[in-house]
Amino acid sequence: AIKIYYQRRFYSSILEGYEKGEINPEKINLLDAIHFINAAWNMDVKPTTIANCFRHCKIRSEEDMPLNKKLVMFKAFIN
Known about the structure:
79 residues; mainly alpha; 4 helices; elongated
Protein backbone atom coordinates (compact mmCIF):
# COMPACT_ATOMS: atom_id res chain seq x y z
CA ALA A 1 0.00 0.00 0.00
CA ILE A 2 2.73 2.49 0.96
CA LYS A 3 4.53 1.93 -2.32
CA ILE A 4 1.43 2.79 -4.34
CA TYR A 5 0.70 5.89 -2.24
CA TYR A 6 4.32 7.00 -2.59
CA GLN A 7 4.30 6.49 -6.36
CA ARG A 8 1.02 8.40 -6.68
CA ARG A 9 2.46 11.38 -4.79
CA PHE A 10 5.76 11.17 -6.65
CA TYR A 11 4.21 11.13 -10.13
CA SER A 12 1.63 13.78 -9.22
CA SER A 13 4.40 16.08 -8.04
CA ILE A 14 6.49 15.41 -11.14
CA LEU A 15 3.54 16.06 -13.44
CA GLU A 16 2.47 19.20 -11.59
CA GLY A 17 5.99 20.63 -11.58
CA TYR A 18 6.58 19.66 -15.19
CA GLU A 19 3.36 21.41 -16.28
CA LYS A 20 4.46 24.54 -14.44
CA GLY A 21 7.95 24.27 -15.89
CA GLU A 22 9.42 24.24 -12.38
CA ILE A 23 10.74 20.74 -12.07
CA ASN A 24 12.97 18.43 -14.01
CA PRO A 25 12.26 14.76 -13.21
CA GLU A 26 15.98 14.07 -13.15
CA LYS A 27 16.45 16.67 -10.39
CA ILE A 28 14.44 14.86 -7.69
CA ASN A 29 16.76 14.34 -4.73
CA LEU A 30 16.69 12.16 -1.65
CA LEU A 31 15.05 14.86 0.47
CA ASP A 32 12.19 15.13 -2.04
CA ALA A 33 11.73 11.36 -1.90
CA ILE A 34 11.68 11.47 1.90
CA HIS A 35 8.98 14.14 1.80
CA PHE A 36 6.91 12.02 -0.60
CA ILE A 37 7.18 8.90 1.55
CA ASN A 38 6.46 10.88 4.72
CA ALA A 39 3.34 12.43 3.22
CA ALA A 40 2.19 9.07 1.90
CA TRP A 41 2.66 7.43 5.30
CA ASN A 42 1.05 10.21 7.36
CA MET A 43 -1.84 11.08 5.07
CA ASP A 44 -2.67 8.01 3.03
CA VAL A 45 -1.96 4.89 5.08
CA LYS A 46 -4.86 4.19 7.44
CA PRO A 47 -4.64 2.33 10.76
CA THR A 48 -6.94 -0.34 9.36
CA THR A 49 -4.44 -0.98 6.56
CA ILE A 50 -1.66 -1.55 9.09
CA ALA A 51 -3.90 -3.77 11.25
CA ASN A 52 -4.83 -5.85 8.20
CA CYS A 53 -1.15 -6.27 7.32
CA PHE A 54 -0.38 -7.44 10.85
CA ARG A 55 -3.28 -9.89 10.71
CA HIS A 56 -2.21 -11.17 7.31
CA CYS A 57 1.37 -11.75 8.52
CA LYS A 58 0.04 -13.48 11.65
CA ILE A 59 1.76 -10.89 13.85
CA ARG A 60 -1.54 -10.11 15.51
CA SER A 61 -4.55 -12.34 15.54
CA GLU A 62 -8.15 -11.21 15.24
CA GLU A 63 -8.75 -12.58 18.72
CA ASP A 64 -6.53 -10.00 20.44
CA MET A 65 -8.22 -7.88 23.03
CA PRO A 66 -8.85 -4.22 22.05
CA LEU A 67 -6.48 -1.71 23.60
CA ASN A 68 -9.18 0.08 25.59
CA LYS A 69 -10.12 -3.19 27.34
CA LYS A 70 -6.47 -3.86 28.10
CA LEU A 71 -6.16 -0.38 29.65
CA VAL A 72 -9.22 -0.98 31.85
CA MET A 73 -7.80 -4.29 33.03
CA PHE A 74 -4.40 -2.70 33.66
CA LYS A 75 -5.93 0.14 35.70
CA ALA A 76 -7.97 -2.38 37.72
CA PHE A 77 -4.83 -4.41 38.34
CA ILE A 78 -2.90 -1.36 39.58
CA ASN A 79 -5.65 -0.26 41.96
